[in-house]
Amino acid sequence: MILSATEIQAIIPHRYPMLLVDRIIELEPMKRAVGIKNVSINEHFFMGHFPEKPIMPGVIILEAMAQVGGVALLYPEENRGKIAYFAGMEKIKFRKPVTPGDQLRMVAEIIKVRGSVGKVWAEAFVDGQVVAEAEFLFALNSR
Q1: Catalytic residue among 14, 23, 32, 49
Q2: pLDDT at 102 over 80
Q3: Is Lipid biosynthesis one of the keywords UniProt gives this record (predicted)?
Q4: Domains with residue ranges and CATH for the chain
Q5: What is the reported pTM?
Q6: Which residue among 67, 76, 113, 143 is least packed, with the fewest CB closer than 10 Å?
Q7: Among this protein's residues, is 44 annotated catalytic?
Q8: Contact present, 130 and 105 (Cβ < 8 Å)
Q9: CB 23 within 8 A of CB 4
Q10: What percentage of the chain reaches a pLDDT higher than 70?
């Protein structure tokens, strides 16, 4: 299943400048999602990180990865209208810098969901190479 940016906005509450997923290219609700972020020099965070050598901040990469996981968790009708809040992050590793012109491909796999808590493993790739990985813990709450 493929989702456009407009369809993603119907699932997660993020909007510019914090919507960090341009497209979902694969989706198995409550199992797995693959998303794309085209990294442009026009991103607001490059003005200060760093003006002479623009690098996508690690926290922004983590947020983009988490949003892909959020789409997988929130796509089912019974979860629509909820927000997936961070409850924790573990096993975070940054492998390579992400720079303007890169296409970030993020793969998020749901490890488990128990009640309103979910655990997701995610990796981000540029040109097939891992640039970041992390395990996220989410708490699903009503808006």
Answers
A1: 49
A2: yes
A3: yes
A4: 5-142 (3.10.129.10)
A5: 0.96
A6: 143
A7: no
A8: no
A9: yes
A10: 100
